[in-house]
Each structure stands twice: as C-alpha cells, then as structure tokens.
Fold each of these.
Amino acid sequence: MQTTKPTLLILAAGMGSRYGGNKQIDGFGPNNETILEYAIYDAIQAGFGKVVFIVRTEILDLVKDRFLQKINDQIQVEFVIQSLTSLVPAAYQNPERTKPYGTAHAVLCAKEVIQEPFAVINADDFYGKEAIDRLGAFLTQPQADNQHCMVGYALKNVLSKHGTVNRGVCDSNSKGELTGMTEREKIAREDKKVVSRMGEDVLEIDENTPVSMNCWGFQPSFFAETEKRWKVFLEESKDNIKAEFYIPTVVNDLIADRQASVKILEGGETWFGVTYPDDKETVEEALSALHQRGVYPVRLWEQEKVGM
C-alpha cells in the first residue's frame, strides 16, 4: 500500500558483534522500551505514515513479536529481509561470504515497498525528537527529485565513553549543503582533544565538526541511483568477500557527479547509541531522564493513539 506521508526506514539487520546480542530488540527504557521505539513514537507524531523494518531472517519473528502489538494499529508496518543473496545475482553469490553487504544494500532491499519520500535511521541509535521532526518537515514539503537531506550532529556529542567509534565527518558549503563525507575510524577523546587513529597516523578533529549518524532523508529517486551503483559494486567487489556498500559512498558519488544535493538539517541535538555492552547503563540513564523531563510519557505507548 502506498502512502502520501513519508516513511521511516529502520536498519535493524545488524549483527551487534561488539555489543554481544540483538540490541535491536533489547530493552533500554524505563518500561523495557527498545531504542528504536522512541524513533517510531516520534515519527508518528511528526506525520510519518509507514515504518519499514530491514531485518535478517533469523530475527524476523523476534522483531515482529517485539513491535507489532505495540504499533500495528498506529502506523502502517512492513518487514523486509536483507540477506547475503538479496538482490545479488547468482553469478556474484559467494558461499564464503558471511559479512553483510552494508547500509546502502539494506536500503535498496526496501525498494519494492517504498514509493514515497523516506527517512533512514539505525535501529540502535537514539536520534532525538528534534531530528525526527526536522526530517518529517523536510520530507513532507515539495522537493526536487534529487534533493535529499541529512541531520548533522556535532562530533563532541556522538562519542562513546567506552571505546573508539567510526564517524562520517562532513564538509559543507555556504548553503548548508553537504559537499562530501570522509569516514574516520577509531575516534576518541584524548585529554582535551578528539583524535582519529589509523595505524601510526593521528588526526585531530574539531569537536564541533558535523558528522553523519546515518540519519537521512531521501526522495524515491535514491533507489534508482543506488541500484546503478550496486551493480557496479558487485562487479568490482566480486572477489572481495568483506566489501560493503555504504550509504555515504552512494551519497558522495551523487554529490561529486552533481546528480543530487543534500541539505544538512539542524536538529542533531540529542544522540546516544549502543556499541559496547558498557553503553547500556548510559543509555538507560539518558532515556529515564527524558521520561522524567516529560519529553516522553511515563509509558511510551500508554495513549490509545500516539499524539491523541
């Protein structure tokens, strides 16, 4: 079924190897709410009409059991499988591959169930009401077919106290549009500096630099452009069983080829995520504080209909 409202696409097929479990369905809120329930709650209030879960086959039933009863009567719901054979012709399938194909492949897996503007988020990141509101406002306004967006977050607000992180560091122009992203690895705060360490190379990064947290807004044309690049990726990576196809790679390519523009939206005020087991307590405390401040009701789904 097609909706005239934007769709929220949730990437929930991750393996959670560093966390040690299915963090997509783990409870973090005061009433055992998962992180992604807050994004769904915010999306309903922001006027989204559908939510699409990208999941692995082995967790499909777990995800349905966890969420359908809570949200099925409040927003249209779809489930899509991302597997190692999804959209991969037989000639490119490699039985030795165990690593997922990445975020852009996950998005592409949803091309048959989304015909409207859509937002993309990770299941294990809390993006904040402000970010979802800004995405909803952008995606419900008339835009050019190649006008996309992302929510930018200051680097200092998206670090982990329990280990290094990888972040897409953004460059922008005077119009507030993204001009390119560079993936920086092993980022952490060291004394008063924020640095990225790659082998012997150490790069200091301004802590106020905007970064991508995989909080995107796309027009439907993004699917066709991604599919073109997916075919090229498969051919170029056929002998590399660890190669991944990422959203930032596609976006950088579109910008470089002048085939799209990406507006950096303000609104990345509150973010926290789960990468390591020790992150759980921090996230639980942060969510509890939001409930206590009245940002969310005592029980997230206590109303008959969200926003009513």
Amino acid sequence: MWGIIATWRMALEGVTQSADALMQGHRAGDAVVDAVAAVEDFPFYKSVGYGGLPTENGEVELDAAWMDGDTLAFGAVANLVDIANPVRVAHALGRQRYNCVLVGQGAREWALSQGFADKKMLTERALQHYRKRCRETLDKGLSPYDGHDTVGIIGLDKQGSMSVATSTSGLFMKKRGRVGDSPVIGSGFYCDSEVGAATATGVGEDLMKGCASYEIVRRMAQGMAPQQAADSVVQELEDKLMSRFGRAGDLSVVCMNARGEFGAATNIQSFSFVVATENQPLTVFRTERVQGKTVCYPVDDAWMQAYAARIRAPIEE
C-alpha cells in the first residue's frame, strides 16, 4: 500500500511526481520533501517559498518542517530568509539529534554552512502584491492580514513508513519574527508510521490552540477513521474557540492512516486538497461543509481552468 495527500491544489504537480515515485517503491521521507520543494519553486504560489508574500516590512520569512513517522525525528525552520527550499533545510535538520529546530539568522547561517543555496526569495510579483496591500490597508489604517495557505504533504510508502512535510511564507503582512503552526510539531504536522499522519493549514494562532495535527493522529490511534478524526477535531476546535475566544479563524486539515485511508476537514467553503493512493487515482478535491461535516467533490475542468487563470492574473496597480 502507498499513498500521498496534500493541502491545496497548488500541490498537484509535486504530488503527481511523488505519487509516481511512491508507486515505484521510493521512500516516503524523500517523496514528501520533493513534492513540497516543487511547490516552493513555483513563483505563482504566493503563500509558499519563492514568490511567497512578505512581512509588513517587505521581507520574505519562510517556515518549513519535516517529520519521520518511523523514528519520530523531525526538523523545522522558522523566519528563514533568502534560502532556497526551506523544506530541504528542515529535512536535513531532521537528521540532527539536537538543534533540530532553528529560527531566523541561526537557521540561515546553518543552512549556508551545509551548502544550501543563497537565493533572493522576494519576487517582483510578490512585491507588487505587497505594494497593493499597503495601499489598500496600511495607508488607510486597516488590518493587512490575509493569505495563509500552507502546503502540507503526507506520504505512505510500500515499506509501511510514513512522513510529512510543510512549507509556508506565513501570514501575509505578518510582523517580523511571527511564527505560525506550520513548523510547530503537533500543531502544523504530526506523523507516526504505526498510526498515521496529519497536517494543517489556516490561521496558525488558532490551529496551535488545539494542537490539531497531533489530536487527529491520537484519535486515529484510538480507532477513529481518518475522516471522522479530522471532522471531529476541526468542529470541536472551532466550537471551543468560539465559546472561549469569541472567534475562530480558518481551520483546514488533511490526514492519512497507516492503511492509506484518508480524510479532510475544514471550517471554510473554499478548501481544496490533492490525493493519490493505491486505490484512489490522483484527484483534486474541493470541499463543502454540511452540518459540521466535510463533503468532498472532485473538481471539474472549469474549476481547474479558473484556478490557473486566477493565480496567473496580472496584479492591478
């Protein structure tokens, strides 16, 4: 049995390549890193990697993580500046016994010392988005925060090993040094090859309040099906946030168990994910929320064409 699942349509090309690799018997740890790196490299995906949207002071600070479900080893970086493929840095940190989570200048210095490429990650297109947002918000005294789509990818290989990787540029117009859930173990990701894995996307400050990814894996360990575990965690976290905190941001998750069964849940109406398994052909799904449950539908050609047009559309100055 093999399988791979990822947040958002933007993961499709990377998942396509890594699904082929898993089908051929390659290891999950490498497959998820390669799939995430493909998303990081594509400049039109403005919430991840090269072309990612900047902080309020115009810098691109990147977060990424990787976890091995066999050993529970993990690595993570946060606030990494001008280093290509932060997920590969996180993967390398996952081989360290200590110092496996590095942030800011320390993360950058370590990456350079290990031979990772120094690359300016702020693109002209992202700068145009930034200038437009400044005009629309900061210049008018409005809140600038919007855009927080993390790519999170889970892989299961034929040897029964699982792995998960994440990458994001974080909240658009965030404060310098802000860290969300994506590089935080248990919140943005968690993986145990004996049980399964989960990864999250949305408002990190709210996802961290429920340790969403760990809680989904814990419920799968107790016997819940992936879809039930995902839906119950998202619904309960949203309810708790509303009752205790007064509001709840976007909460979306995908998960897969050790048998290749998968689930997805969200509290928004525009979540998409990509999945392929030995029993499920490669498919992009969109979701709808119906009475607290997530219903998934394969997207059609019109949806795919609209998506492609939207991400490449010129930015109105």
Amino acid sequence: MQNEALVQLVVNALEDLKGTDITTIDVRGKTSVTDFMVIASGTSSRHVKALADNVLEKVKEQGVRPLGSEGLEGGEWALLDLGDVVVHVMQVPTRQFYDLERLWQGAEQSRAQHAGEQE
C-alpha cells in the first residue's frame, strides 16, 4: 500500500469514530524512522483506545501489518507504528503537553530559517 493511501486509510478510520483535530505531518527528510505522522485527539481514555483499535482493525483488513503499538492499556495516549506511517492518538491535555506538531513542524521552519541565514 502506498504511503498516501495508508495515511488516508488511517485518517478515515479516525474520522469514523469521531477523532478530533486530525493532523498529518510529512516528516520525510527529517527522520529515518517514518515518512508520515498522523496525530489525533480523543475525548476520553475509552475514546483514545477505540480510535487506536479502529485504526489497527482497518489497516489489518488492507493487509498492513503493524510493527508495534504502545499505550493502548492506559488510554491517555496510543502510538501505532505502521512503518512508513506512525499514528499518535492522545487525550487533549496529553497532546498539548507533548505538542508534537510544533516539534516536527517547528523543525522544518527552523531549518528553513537557518538555511536562509546562510545564504
């Protein structure tokens, strides 16, 4: 399955169960760990777990074998490693604390600003 198709499958699975504030970040060239990160919020520990479980179910139906998952027991956050796509599902306070969007998108901005200074 192509990366973009896998990202769309993940986003659809999150939308199916009313995941909120779904963000996709292209991290190609920033890390060798993955190509895309999908970040979404859930409203409660049960919601986070249900969202993560739905993503796992939908990708497995398409023949994608997850490399691993973390945090499913607690429900404050969940991480799903699908290889070229890593999925983070978190409750809002946890998401605000880790601020992954700023971390990964900020790296791109600061690198672009730094490159401009060298010219």
